[in-house]
Amino acid sequence: MPSNAISICGVGKEYTIRHDSDAPTTLAEAIVRRVRHPLARTTREQFWALRDVSFDVQRGEVLGLIGGNGAGKSTLLKILSRITEMTEGAVDLYGRVGSLLEVGTGFNQELTGRENIFLNGTILGMRRAEIREQFDAIVAFAGVERFLDTPVKHYSSGMYVRLAFAVAAHLRSEILIVDEVLAVGDQEFQRKCLGKMRDVALGGRTVILVSHNMAAISSLCSTAVVLRAGRLAFAGNVSGAVEEYLARDAADMVGDLRGRRDRTGGGELRAVSLALRRANGDLTRSVRPWEPFEIMVGYESPAALHDVMFSIDIELADGTRVATLHSDFRGERFDVPAGEGTYYCEVHGLPLRPDSYVLNISIGGHALYDYVERALSFEIEPVDVFGTGRLPQRSQGPLIADYHWRAAEEVTPAV
Amino acid sequence: MIDDSVAIEPLRTLRPTKGWVSLELSEIVQFRDLLMELARRDIKLRYRQTLLGIGWVLVQPLFAAGMLTFAFGVVAGLKAEGTSSFLFTYAGLLVWNAFAWTLSKASLSMVGNAYLVSKVYFPRLILPLSGTLSTLLDFSVSLSVLVAGLAVLHIWPGWPLVLLPVWILLVIFLALGAGLIAAALTVRYRDIQHILPILIPFLLYASPVAYQVEHIPAQYRSLFYVINPLAGLIGGFRWSTLGTAMPPVPALMWSIALSIALFLFGAAVFRRTEREFADAI
Question: pLDDT under 50 in chain B at which residues?
């Protein structure tokens, strides 16, 4: 019989933004103002970071919380984990809440690994006895046996993160709230973390998971909620939620590069925008594996140039390059007239695993004219490519090959 | 497996709160291991990579008491009557240190742990309380020196000794009361963390640490006890250790009442503003 683990009812959180010019920043200023203008009210701007959010989370469910920056995800997590208080509404919690909003909260550089396990564990709400009981499991999970009595300031960043996640992963609360922690550590460790999260859910505990990684959400979560501008935009199955999240506003579709100062190159010709377009003409920020699409490069060139080459790198969020689409590889060079215009890169399909990717754009000729890193991010959609309901995992490599298995036509019978 | 029957009533309902709220002492008990771990962290970190280690706890008050005895006893000639000038000052200094350290640690406890306050939930009162625990440990270590001194000089305070824990508790209450108000204010107005370090050393001279209340002209003594509630507590502490004269009963009553009242008021103010800490810090 399913029952609620969390019931969220009409939750709203209002922040007050005081205007810089009149906000008292020191006590003296505040007192002087009170004395001089005893009846004056400070001008404040009210801002609802979250409004009218209601949904239930069933026990044993892994709920994905999705939304762009500023959608209110963090605010909701902070309310659920009691770090901050809501302004209106109510939340019923049917169990102890453990929250992991940051890996390694309260870790102290000077303390040893052993000391930090106890400090961090109690900060997360564990009892000492509980930690002692799970101490060996935590140490084994993190793989830091040899460095237990070394101050963590001497740890490599990988070890540090592993130890921090290991402590949190052994929280025994009935409800676990996790914010974007899967983005840390190497691939092997991420696989371990994902496995641990799945075990947690299988053990009948409830998990709320925030991630920008749609593939992780799709593979881990049973249901999902989308927040947009502080309001609930969607609650229900994961594929519906991902679709809702990816359908962004039109203004979001085009990567405007005019404001980018972190570019290199001589500037003879500059990329001013980058966008993806589906075969039906719609702009998009996500494509399916193998789906044909076009990359549109808007440019600006003060003078005419000859033999211009365009190149786009496709990288994973961690910087791993998966492909380079260089016009010169195809023997394509262009004479670019002075002025503004667009060049198109026709992509016949990317055999890539569902994940977040970024594009770098470079334009050159006799020298490098312009290079912008991370000019546009896009998603390969977590669709069921093989029609079997199984998504390839990060540990299985970046490519999705088109393949199938068969048996030999002639079988040698067993003797 | 989780028993389904417990799910009918929520374990906890979160709602917006307004005004004064309860101290929720039961929750502090629930988080007592965190309290101990934070105190342990404080103690470990303070003396890690130092040569003398915990020995610094002994050196500091001995040195300070020596200087104060020299300045007040020798130079100014304000000799404590009927007891060793040094032990008299040392005893006063122990109380003073417990007060000053508790106050300054509590006042910085929120801002100094901002990264915790904004990332994880626990009863916020744990932070100022954990600072108090490590101060109490320092106090006990320094107290052993006082005990040794009393033994050498064959001083036995008699039955007032049983009141010793009471004075210490009241000093902590007084310091925590002020410290909790300061901590709540510091979250919004960072001036407090600049004011207190200037103010506290001067308060030392306003307290009967290196002089006796009897050195103050008789007509001002009552006023002195009223203005400085610590005076009664320092007197009480000396009465319970050095066996000096008992401070006037009205002064003691006033100090006791004010310490308890300030602690309760400070805790209430702290709890009332606590809900804004994570947003304002």
Answer: 1-7
Cβ contact, residue pair B7, A59, below 8 Å: yes
CA dihedral B47, B52, B56, B62 (to 10 degrees): 180
Q: What is the Cα–Cα distance from A80 to A99, expressed in whole angstroms? A: 9
Token pair recorded at residue B85: 């000038």
Pairing type for strands A334-336 and A286-287 reads unpaired
Residue B277 to residues A31, B20, B87, B118, B269, Cα–Cα distance (Å): 21, 15, 43, 8, 12
**CATH code, residues A250-396:** 2.70.50.60
Per-chain mean pLDDT for chain A: 85
Q: Specify the length of chain A in residues.
A: 415
Question: CA triplet B213, B217, B218: central angle to 5 degrees?
Answer: 80
SS3 state at A309: strand
Q: Pinpoint the residues of chain A covered by CATH 2.70.50.60.
A: 250-396
Element of type H or E holding A31: helix A27-36
The tens digit of pLDDT for each residue in B179-203 reads 999 999 998 888 888 889 999 999 9
Would an 8 Å CB–CB cutoff place A256 in contact with chain B? no
A85 with B16: Cβ contact below 8 A: yes
* A60 close contact with B: CB closer than 8 A: no
Distance from CA of B46 to the nearest CA of A (A): 10
* pLDDT 10s digits, A378-411: 888 888 778 776 777 777 788 888 888 988 888 7
Among B residues 30-49, those touching chain A with beta carbons less than 8 Å apart: 31, 33-34, 36-38, 40-41, 44-45, 48-49
Q: Cα separation of B103 and B91, whole Å?
A: 19
Residue B192 in contact with partner chain A when CB distance is under 8 A: yes
Write a three-state SS string for B56-98.
Answer: HHHHHHHHHHHHHHHHHHHHCCCCCCCCCHHHHHHHHHHHHHH
Q: Is B50 exposed, middle or buried (0-12, 13-18, 19+ CB in 10 A)?
A: exposed
Find out whether A124 and A167 touch, Cβ atoms under 8 Å.
Answer: yes
Tell which residue, A300, A305, A281, has the closest CA to residue A343. A300
Q: Do A118 and B275 touch (CB under 8 A)?
A: no
Q: Provide the 8-state DSSP code for A151.
A: B
| Domain extents in chain B | 40-280
| Nearest-CB residue to B119 (from A91, A101, A111) | A101
**DSSP E strands: which ranges in chain B?**
12-14
ipTM of the complex: 0.83
Tell me if B16 and A27 make a contact (CB, 8 A cut-off): no
Rounded Cα gap, residues A210 and A101, in angstroms: 9
CB-based contact, A377 to chain B, within 8 Å: no
The CA distance from A146 to A130, in Å, is: 22
Rounded to whole angstroms, how far apart are CA atoms A376 and B156?
80
User: Tokens 């342990």 — which residue?
Assistant: B40
d(CA A55, CA A39): 42
**Amino acid at position A29, single letter:** E
Q: Tell me the chain A residues in contact with residue B1 when contact means C-beta distances shorter than 8 Å.
A: 204
Query: Using CB atoms, which residue from A1, A84, A88 is nearest to B279?
Result: A84
pLDDT score at B2: 46
- Give which of A205, A170, A21 is closest to A95, Cα–Cα: A205
Within 8 A of A111 by CB-CB distance, chain B residues are 41, 44-45
Tell me which residue in A3, A108, A124 faces B120 most closely, judged by beta carbons: A124
Structure tokens at B238: 């000396």
In the beta sheet, which residues pair with residue A297?
A274, A343
User: Fold for domain A4-246?
Assistant: Rossmann fold (3.40.50)
CB contact under 8 A, A108 and B34: no
